[in-house]
Each structure stands twice: as structure tokens, then as C-alpha cells.
Design a protein that fits this description.
This protein is mainly alpha-helical and 79 residues long. The protein has one domain (3-64): lambda repressor-like DNA-binding domains (434 Repressor (Amino-terminal Domain)). It contains 6 helices and no strands. It has helices spanning 3-12, 17-24, 28-35, 42-52, 56-59, 61-64. Helix 2 (17-24) crosses helix 3 and helix 2 packs across helix 4 (42-52).
């Protein structure tokens, strides 16, 4: 989902960023920053996804659907 899609999904359900912030005990700007991709917070992302009623991996695929990083260390490969 893109930031505008997240905002629209919340609006469609009648949920404000302020309500999410109060429920999570954070500032409104923190929720806004996460929705717009300016901040990363697993707890806030999960709260937003729950409010939307979707899996967090679908709401924030850029953080939760990444392929695992490859091990790049070659320390044990010296002959």
C-alpha cells in the first residue's frame, strides 16, 4: 500500500490518525510519519494495519515483504 492508500483506508473506516495515536500512546505526528513512510516503527505499523483491518505485510510491504539479506561475510572462506 502506498501512503495515500493507507490514508484512504483509514478514512473509509472513519478512523483518524489521532485515534490511533491515543490507542498506542504516541503523538499524532508519529502516526502520520509512519503512514507517510518518514519513520519506521513496528508497533505503530501494526496498530495502523489493525485499524485498517489488514495484515501488516499488505499495509507496509516495503518493510515486511523484503527478501532476507544475504550473508556477505567472507571471513570463513580463506584457504
Amino acid at each position: 500500500m502506498k501512503p495515500l492508500d493507507r490514508q484512504f483506508a483509514l478514512k473509509r473506516r472513519g478512523i483518524t490518525q489521532h485515534q490511533i495515536a491515543v490507542d498506542l500512546g504516541v503523538k499524532d505526528i508519529s502516526v502520520s510519519d509512519v503512514i507517510n513512510g518518514h519513520r519506521v516503527s513496528d508497533r505503530i505499523m501494526r496498530g495502523i494495519a489493525a485499524a485498517i483491518g489488514e495484515d501488516v505485510r499488505l499495509v507496509f510491504p516495503e518493510y515486511y515483504l523484503r527478501a532476507p539479506k544475504r550473508k556477505t561475510s567472507k571471513a570463513g572462506l580463506a584457504a
